[in-house]
Specification:
Helices cover 62% and strands 0% of the residues. It has a domain at 31-79. By secondary structure, it is mostly helical.
Length: 81
């Protein structure tokens, strides 16, 4: 009989750190305004990216180092934009 070795779930702080890093690597925060703002503008992707960057910085600065317990509520508030 072969036992499956499964990876342990990360703790909340570790999971949030991983999620923040995944978002930071997937979203092109360093993109120039000239590349972001082309053609017709429907909404403002630059402002949306600035807002997302600000929220991620908030998570990194306050929530992650403190071991934020109620991460589900905080994340749902962050995503309710």
């Amino acid at each position: 009989m072969v036992k499956n070795k499964t990876k342990r779930k990360p703790n909340t702080r570790g999971a949030m750190h991983d999620l923040v890093q995944q978002v930071r690597s997937a979203v092109p925060f360093d993109m120039s305004v000239a590349d972001i703002c082309v053609d017709d503008c429907y909404g403002c992707p630059k402002k949306l990216m600035e807002y997302l960057d600000m929220e991620l910085e908030n998570w990194e600065a306050r929530s992650l180092p403190l071991g934020y317990k109620d991460w589900k509520t905080a994340m749902s508030q962050t995503l309710a934009i």
